[in-house]
Design a protein that fits this description.
Number of strands: 0
Number of domains: 2
Structural class: mainly alpha
Length: 247
């Protein structure tokens, strides 16, 4: 009797484990790989690996509010991207859904990547890598100048996306999307333009901080409009489909 009960418990446990087995294996594998990378860096380089696994503000003895606006911007973009990817997943088997799952998935990927870039400053690392590749890494401001290449690549990606989904965009809340592109464009123009054209602005004590705040506010405005567009488009598509069940 005890063996039968034990077998029943085992089968019950296995029944609950099987559906999540891919997640268990994937999570443990990912964490294992990340741990192996940390150990490899620790034993083969002089990098302080605690800088990788610790909170930057705490490790650098910075105030808790350090990077607050950057984190807010990245969170808005990643949250908007997650909404669109989730909505695309729900609509993937509904070919008549508007907008399409592909539209939502690609838009979510675009703004999600911008959120990752904003958080980890990929464009700055890429700008430095390009400068060093061209043998100009030691020049003052070289990284910022070559960031323009990264931003140009982003612009091409957005242009390709708009060209592919132009008809769909026109039937969505395109005003929000237009504002996203305008404010992002202005932020990039300030970021790159001041290094490409030094001396344009007056050299005063208050100018650097003012320009930096203006750039950040423009970017933050663009990210919030991106989140608004993602919510309006993604959640709106799901609600419409929920009100019209599939045949």
């Amino acid at each position: 009797m005890g063996e039968v009960r034990g077998d029943g418990v085992t089968r019950g446990v296995l029944t609950h484990i099987r559906p999540v087995t891919p997640w268990l294996i994937g999570t443990l594998a990912l964490v294992g790989i990340m741990g192996a990378v940390i150990l490899t860096i620790h034993f083969t380089t002089h990098v302080d690996v605690t800088l990788i696994i610790s909170d930057p503000a705490d490790k650098g003895h910075l105030p808790g509010y350090s990077g607050l606006y950057t984190f807010a911007s990245a969170f808005a973009l990643l949250a908007g991207g997650a909404i669109c990817v989730f909505a695309a997943q729900l609509l993937r088997n509904r070919p008549a859904a508007f907008p399409s799952a592909l539209f939502l998935l690609t838009f979510g990927a675009l703004i999600g990547w911008l959120g990752i870039d904003d958080l980890f400053m990929f464009h700055e690392w890429a700008g430095l890598a390009i400068a060093e590749l061209l043998g100009r890494g030691d020049e003052p401001g070289a990284r910022s100048r070559f960031e323009a290449i990264v931003f140009a690549a982003y612009a091409v990606a957005w242009i390709v996306w708009l060209g592919r989904f132009w008809r769909t965009v026109r039937q969505t809340a395109f005003v929000l999307l237009a504002l996203v592109l305008v404010f992002f464009g202005l932020s990039v123009a300030i970021d790159v333009g001041l290094f490409l054209f030094p001396g344009v602005l007056p050299d005063t004590a208050w100018m650097p901080t003012t320009v930096e705040v203006a750039e950040e506010m423009l970017k933050l405005t663009g990210t919030f409009f991106a989140f608004a567009y993602a919510w309006q488009t993604g959640i709106g598509a799901v609600r419409r489909e929920m009100s019209c069940p599939a045949d």
